[in-house]
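Late entry, written up from scratch paper. The run itself happened at the end of the previous shift, but nothing got recorded in the book at the time, so transcribing now.
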Amino acid sequence: METYRVKVGAEGEISLPLELRNLFGLAPGDTLDLCVDSEGKVFVRTAERSVEPLSDFFEDLIIGDLHSAGFTGDELKNRLLEQKLKLSTVLDRMAEEGYRAHKNFQSVKWRAVQSIKPLENVKSSPTPFQVVITTRGIHDLAVLQPAELKEIPAVLSGLEEDPLGFKRLRGPYYETYRVSFHCGHKEYRVVYTVFAPENLVVVLTIGKRKAIFEKLNGIA
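Output as recorded:
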C-alpha cells in the first residue's frame, strides 16, 4: 500500500498531491468523505465511488515495457502509475461508449452472435443479467480461431448469472471487470462493464491478454 504524507494547515486543511488527485480523478469542488474505523484508521472515498488503488492493469506487461525502455527505481514507479492511469481512462471511455452504443441499439445480445452460438447444454432461460457485445467486441471475435471461439459461450453464460464475482479493473467511475479463460496454453480475457441498475453487462473487448493490452495502449 502506498503512503503519502501531507501537512495539516492552520485551519485543518490538507492539500492532496497532484499524483493522488489524478489517481482519484478529482476536480476542484469535489467532496471527499473521511471514514474512521474502530482502530482509528482513516479511509478516503467520494460520494460516487471508492478511491481505492488501481489494480490488475496488466502490471507485469507495463513493467516489462518500462524496463525495456530503460526506466528503473522511482522513475519506473512513477511511469507505472502514469500508465495505469492512462489505461484506467481508456477503460472508462470504452465503458461510456459501450453504454451509449447499447442505448442507440448498436450492441448485440451475445446469444445472437453467430460465431459464438451457445451449445445446447448452455442455459437459455431468463437470467439475472443481460449480456450484450459492442461492435468493437464483435470485431475482436473475427480474429479468433474456432477452438478459441468455442470457449466463449460458457464464459458469457456465466456473466448472465453473476458478473460481479471476477476481478475488477478499477477505473474512476465505471464497474469494469475482466474474466480469464484459456485455450490450450494461451490466456484470454473478456473485459466488460456492469451497469447494475439495469442488470446490464456490456462486453467491451475479447481476446488474448497481451493483444488487449496493446489495444488499450494504442487507444491511449
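The first helix runs from residue 18 to 24.
(Scratch paper discarded after transcription.)
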